[in-house]
Amino acid sequence: MMKQKIIILLSLILLTSLVACNSTTEKKNFRLINPNLKEVVVKEVIQTSNYTYLKLDEDGEDYWGAIPRSEDIKTGSTYYFDSFMEMKDFPSKELDRTFDHILFIQEVRPEPFAAGQPAAEQHAEEKMGSPKSGNQEIEPMEAVEGGVTLATLLSDPSSYNGKKVKVRGVVVKYTEAVMNKNWVHIQDGTEAGGKYDLTITTVAECQIGDLVTFEGTIVLDKDFGYGYAYDVLMEDAMLLNNEKASSLQ
């Protein structure tokens, strides 16, 4: 009887070891399906209005990363990513600090994933934009004088490719000083084919909630690499008018 108990005990120990070994092997072999995948542990989380800044540990090396604002990231947890853009001497006015070196990461996931695997549906929606600015629904606006609505622009963008266009809308997302430009997402309450958000690059400054009018050149299928691609983009836009959020309240 004692001998049988010992055999059963040894069998359980062996089985547990094999399961642990297989799990570890799967984790270590994730680069076979995605050689560009990075495995990091989050050591610190800092939230701002647009970004979640993460202090990351990759194989004993610490560095900073930033992702679109998320409440789901947990300190001490392991995450994986493969699409990012490296920035040096990046100033964050909101944090009042400059990062010597930071990675702007398109998406982090809690499990390894294959190369080219589509991002989660929720992230795709974030890139297209939300029909709301905070908790305030954006009422459809008429086109500014001499301009077009986003519905008109996005319903037939090829007609505006390479042309200067004037648009008006509410700022729903604003990112400063990336590739020496500020990045503004606006919406005007109109939509075409489920698209209702326009990304604009500019040197002008604004803030979320501002009602702005921009004029800039429309370009199509702009790919900056690192997973940052835009079907429709307004480049080098000039800010013609800005009704600050504080004055609209």
Estimate percent helicity: 10-25%
User: How would you describe the oligomerization state of the chains in this entry?
Assistant: single chain
The H-level CATH homologous superfamily of the largest domain, spelled out, is Nucleic acid-binding proteins
- The helix tally amounts to 4
Please trace the helix and strand order, writing H or E for each element. Answer: HEEEEEEHEEHEEEEEH
Structural class: alpha+beta
Q: Segments where pLDDT lies below 50 for 5+ residues?
A: 18-26, 120-130
CATH C-level name of the largest domain: Mainly Beta
Number of domains: 2
Question: How is the CATH topology of the largest domain named?
Answer: OB fold (Dihydrolipoamide Acetyltransferase, E2P)
Overall shape = elongated
Write the SSE topology.
Layout: H1 2-28, E1 38-47, E2 51-58, E3 61-68, E4 78-81, E5 84-92, E6 97-105, H2 121-128, E7 132-133, E8 136-137, H3 150-155, E9 164-178, E10 181-187, E11 198-202, E12 211-223, E13 229-243, H4 245-248
Parallel strand pairs: 3-6, 11-13
Antiparallel strand pairs: 1-2, 1-4, 2-3, 5-6, 7-8, 9-10, 9-12, 10-11, 12-13
What are the defining features of this structure?
249 residues, alpha+beta, OB fold (Dihydrolipoamide Acetyltransferase, E2P), six-stranded mixed sheet, five-stranded mixed β-barrel, elongated
